[in-house]
Every structure is written in structure tokens, then in C-alpha cells.
User: Fold this.
Amino acid sequence: MIQLYDVTLRDGNHALRHSLTCNFVSEYCKLAEESDVWAVEVGHGNGLGASSYLVGKSADSDQDLLLAARNKLSRVKLAVHAIPGFATIKRDLIPALSIGVDVFRIATHSTEASTSQKHIEFLRNKGVIVHGVLMMSHMNDISGLVEQAKLMHSYGASAVILMDSAGYFVPNEVQERVDSIKSTLGIEVGFHAHNNLGVAVSNASKAIESGASIIDGASMGLGAGAGNAQLENIVSTGIRNKLVSSEISKYLKMSQIVEQSYPECLPRVTSSSIESGMAGVFSGYAPQVKALAAELGIEPTAIWKEMSKRKLVAGQESMVKEIAQDLMNL
Amino acid sequence: MSNQKTRVAIIGTGNIGSDLCARLIQSKEFEVVAFVGRRSDSPSLVKFRDNVAYSISTGIDGLLEIIEEFEGFFDATSAFEHLKHWEILKQHKKWAIDLTPSKIGTPMVPELIGQSDKFVINGTECMNYSMITCGGQSSAPLVHAIYKHSKKISDIEISSSIASKSAGPATRLNIDEYIESTENLVKLITNCKSVKSILVLNPAEPPIMMRTTVQMEVADFNLSAIKQELKSIVDKVKRYVPGYEVVVEPYSPSRNVISATVKVSGAGHFLPTYAGNLDIINAAAIETARRYILAKKEFSQLEKKL
Assistant:
């Protein structure tokens, strides 16, 4: 059984520059409740507690967005993404528990699983589902990913999700990674694709074939950079491949409301997103790179390349300014 | 000033404790009487065995056996451990410099002594000074400079990125405490209630140097006064943290917001230069101890005169 995990209202918030409103969350969740998605993830693009100057301030707070979703969801689980370093147990996880969030994803960079120990351990006896997430998973090798997944599992995560946050992977790389974790740890594995190289849906399908049971997608692909794997296409190809049993029309309704509400924010594979994907840099930096390049009159390519050289991880927005400044002074 | 060295103990043989030990055994003002860990095979205990009078592998119990031998201690264990250590050692009138995020000590940012009325060294009592966090120490000069030349601060954010290699197991496990302690320090400096702190670990090779960015929302500010103030504080910080530098000068990225970034490279005592986060907290710890001992001496001389 494949669990479809809908990140439209979280990763999509990157594409909306964190302007997501309670109203839209409400409308979208009503439709999601009619579909066969397993969970809907809601919040700031960088997860709970991430509203900030560094990565962008939210229009509506995490708590308000979660409450709006909670009111509309009953069959579908309400989920959050939380990165230790941004989100804390006291300020973010406890309030989310009291709102009634069902699924907590505790996310770290693909080499930093040990920062998730306290958060996962705190949640594991609270009657909620806890996933460990390895972000920017292309920045660790396969045995390293297995080690990190093992840590998260040992803390109490019931599943480990590999995120291709930069949209760097091609399908056979996804297969190798999902295979390795499944065969060594025997736990549930999830996969989260980005479409920088135009293969997000193929990567998601490959993950399913390789034994991943939790698949992330977003309506209209609404997500950071070139967007996520388009949910309605995961479903349509899944139906054709007899991997998913569902009715496509339910997903098209969700897709349409996104398309109609945010026509100017829909992600596309642009030259910039291909550059960032090839460079293996986090997609979420795209708006900032674009703005700085225009302001300082430098090529976005130069900034992406330098970011790649300095191996930036997610959440280092303040470095982009310094890099652009250094490039100006060359 | 007399040439007699101040006799101290260091508890904790991880990254921070070991770097402290490497610094203090070279110091003209301090003598490391005891270096205290909990495992006899701790690599740092072995490494510094010949440089200290007592190399103790039985934790606080072992230290109690030589209680008369030292005046104060540096604690680089964990918040939880420090609470226990302080409960015991304060009864023996030992002063403490706390490098854990325990929050029980008086917060101290040595470069702001005499600059901000929030940081006063008290030589009259047996004190416990808390070094807060590396994010706190590295952001304090920026926060203070902006605070001093701005009106009505409504929101503050401190974001630091550090090399993964420089974040030991205790930092990783206590990342929430790190965030809260950093925020509390900034609240103390500015009286602003809305403060957010963020920590990002970056595993890049070669390891990155620590960066700390401060963003503050204010009603009004004097940018040239802020820059000048910052320069004068940074000059002072550089005296004990030579690798502290402003890499993005204060500027206004949007209306009523001021931002600036510093980079901290380490002096490379025990750990490589990328560990600027450890460097700044240890340098601050030693500077605080130095100022405290000076204040104590002044006080006891004053007492003698009376």
C-alpha cells in the first residue's frame, strides 16, 4: 500500500514565498479529504518555527494554518515538517501536539541525524507517527545515508524519508538509495522529489518500484525551485502502472484550485532551476539568487556555482549575500 | 599584580574542555590543577596527562578528593551535569565558569563589561558565570551596537551556521537549549521580547568558518553610529578572539530592518581553525575568569584597607 503524502501546503509555501493563508488551507483540505492522500503537510516552507528574516516570514502563523487544516481533516492525517535548529520542542512541537497533528517529520541535513534525537524521542511516546527526514540526501553517499537512517530509526522514527531537496537525482540513483535502506534496515522508506532535472515523477515512480511506501507529491508540483513531483501525475502514472488504485478526478480538483489560486507562482523547470539542480544546491534559494543577481548585475550561474563550491545546505540564506558580495569584489 | 597563578580545574574532556585545557596550560595567569573526565581512556585526558597536576577520570568524585587544591572551575560537560557540579562545589566556595547551556549562572559577555549595564563583574561573592552559547557570544557585539543606536526594537533574529565537525555530541543533543539560551541573552541585552535564534550545521569539506547574522527590526536607527560602535567593540573582541571579523557590514535590507554578519575563525589551539564557535566561547570564558579574579583581588585589597 502506497501512502501518498501531500506537501502542497508546506513545500508549496516556498513557491508562495510563505504567503499561504488559512483560507486556502481550509479550501484545499476539504478537497484533500475527498481524495486518497494519506496525509497533508502544512506550514512554513522550512517547517515549523522557521518563519524568519533568514528564510522568509510567514503571512499566517504555523499554528493558525494547522488549526485551519485540523478543522477540515478527519480521514486524512495532518502532518508537519520540523527541522531541529529552527523548531524547538517547547515552542513548536508541543503546541503542534496540542492542535492534534498526527504525523511529525523531524528533518535534518543528510549527515546530521544526531540533531534529531531529542525531538524524535520526545514524540515517540506521544501517540503520533514520527518520520525521520534526511534532507539534501544527494550530499551523503549511500552507506552514509544508511547510517543516518539507522540513527533516526534508533531514536524511534517509524520511517525514514529521503529528500532530494536540490532535485539532483536521476531514477537509478533513487533506486540504489531506497534499495539500500530497505534491505539493510527493513523499515518504511519514503521519497521526496524535486523537479529541477524534469524527472521528479519518474524518480517518485522508481522509488515506488524500489519499495518506498511513502511518496511525497504536491498538486501542480507546487514547491521550492522547479517544484515537487506533481501529485496528480504520481497518481496517474501509478494507476497506469497498477501501483496505485485511486480516482484521478479527485486529484485534479486539488490541482485546479492550486492552479486557479496561484497562477503566477506555479513552478516550472527554468534555466535557473536546472543550474541549481545540476549544482546540487537547495532549490529554495532560487528567489534570493534571482533578486541578488538582478540587484548587483551578476549572472545567477556564477552565484549558483559558488554556492555549490561552498557546499551550502538549506538555511544558509545569509551566505548568499556574502557570496554575491565576494563575486563583486573579484 | 602578583605573579601567582590562579589554580583551576577543568571538568569535561570533550572538544570545549580540551581546547580550554590547551589554552590554560599556556597561560601566564592560570594553572590547570585538575583536568577531569569520566573515562580513563579519554584521548584528551591521556594527551594532557603530563601538563596538569591531577588527571582525573572519576568525575566530580575524584575532584572532591583534591578540593583544597583549586579556587574555581571551568565546566564543559552538559547542562544536566553542571547543575550537579555547581550544587556540590559552591558549598566549597569554588567559583564557576559555565560553558554548558545550563542557564543557572549569571550571563557574561566580557567585551560588553563597561559597555552595557547588563554585564557587571562582581568580585565580592563566589560567582557562577555562564558563557551562554557561541551564537550568543558571536552575536552580542552586533546586537549591542545596533541596540545602542536604534529606537524601539520590535524583533530580533540571530542565525548561525557552524561546521558540523565543530558540533560535538552535547551540542547536537542540546540544540533546543542552545537556541533558548542564545535567545535569552539577546533579550537581556536589548529588553526585546521577540527574539528568535536559528542554528544550521554544515558538513562541507573543507569545513566552513562560523557565520552569525543578526537582523533587527527597529523604528529608527543611525547607521553610521552603529558601524562606528561595532568597529570599536570588534577591536576589543579581536584582542582575545583574533579571528572575529565583520564580513557583511551593517546595512538595511528592507525598511526598518538592519542586518550584519560576522565570521569567526578559531585560533587553532586544540581544534582546527574552523572551530571558531568553540574558540569564541573559550576565549570569552578565560577573559571572564580573568576579569573576575581581578575584581576579587581589588575587592580584597579594598577590604584590607578598611
Remarks:
- Residues 276-305 of chain B form the longest helix (30 residues).
- The interface with chain A takes residues 157, 159, 161, 164, 169, 172-176, 179-180, 196, 198-205, 208, 211, 213, 215, 247-248, 253, 257, 259, 261 of chain B (CB under 8 Å).
